[in-house]
UniProtKB/TrEMBL annotation:
<dbReference type="GO" id="GO:0003824">
    <property type="term" value="F:catalytic activity"/>
</dbReference>
<dbReference type="Pfam" id="PF01230">
    <property type="entry name" value="HIT"/>
</dbReference>
<feature type="short sequence motif" description="Histidine triad motif">
    <location>
        <begin position="101"/>
        <end position="105"/>
    </location>
</feature>
<dbReference type="InterPro" id="IPR039384">
    <property type="entry name" value="HINT"/>
</dbReference>
<dbReference type="InterPro" id="IPR011146">
    <property type="entry name" value="HIT-like"/>
</dbReference>
<feature type="active site" description="Tele-AMP-histidine intermediate">
    <location>
        <position position="103"/>
    </location>
</feature>
<dbReference type="InterPro" id="IPR036265">
    <property type="entry name" value="HIT-like_sf"/>
</dbReference>
<dbReference type="InterPro" id="IPR019808">
    <property type="entry name" value="Histidine_triad_CS"/>
</dbReference>
<dbReference type="GO" id="GO:0009117">
    <property type="term" value="P:nucleotide metabolic process"/>
</dbReference>
<protein>
    <submittedName>
        <fullName>HIT family protein</fullName>
    </submittedName>
</protein>
<dbReference type="InterPro" id="IPR001310">
    <property type="entry name" value="Histidine_triad_HIT"/>
</dbReference>
<feature type="domain" description="HIT">
    <location>
        <begin position="9"/>
        <end position="119"/>
    </location>
</feature>
């Protein structure tokens, strides 16, 4: 199934209206090389169906993307022999999402490649962790169950 939103770059790629360098695809997903690669082999995996982000993607479609990410990682390991791999996703502009069609980055890594995708955060205090845990647990209370199960609690 190919569905899309007019003006979405990834929908254009999925539909074949825009060029891409596809490395794998199946009936649910397309995997293609990123035109701004963080490293050689940097691949994007997108669902054929247009969904905005992690809060909008169904568990089924998310699973289909995850299965393709796994296939892509194996292919990149064989073809490029990296020392490691990063799998990265951004949902929302605050997290760095710049194309609003759900996608996952698969980035091969080599020792001393100079790419730094890590963050260095100070250790949280036990009180801060407990406060966050309480807020999360409150969201799983019966009156919140529907919001949690559908992940529609986030306004975008």
């Amino acid at each position: 199934m190919v569905t899309g939103t007019s003006g979405c770059v990834f929908c254009g790629i999925v539909a074949g209206r825009l060029p891409s360098r596809r490395i794998l695809e199946d009936e649910h997903t397309v995997a293609f090389l990123d035109i701004r690669p963080a490293a050689p082999g940097h691949t994007l995996v997108v669902p054929r169906e247009h969904v905005r982000d992690l809060w909008d993607v169904s568990a089924t479609v998310h699973g289909q993307v995850a299965a393709m990410v796994h296939r892509v990682a194996g292919l990149l390991a064989t073809a490029l022999t990296p020392d490691g791999i990063n799998v990265k996703h951004n949902s929302g502009s605050a997290a760095g999402q710049d194309v609003f069609h759900f996608h996952t980055h698969v980035v091969p890594r080599w020792q001393h490649d100079g790419l730094d995708l890590t963050w260095r955060s100070p250790r949280a205090s036990p009180d801060r962790l407990d406060d966050v845990l309480k807020r999360i647990r409150r969201a799983t209370e019966p009156d919140q169950a529907l919001r949690v199960s559908t992940m529609n609690a986030h306004p975008h």
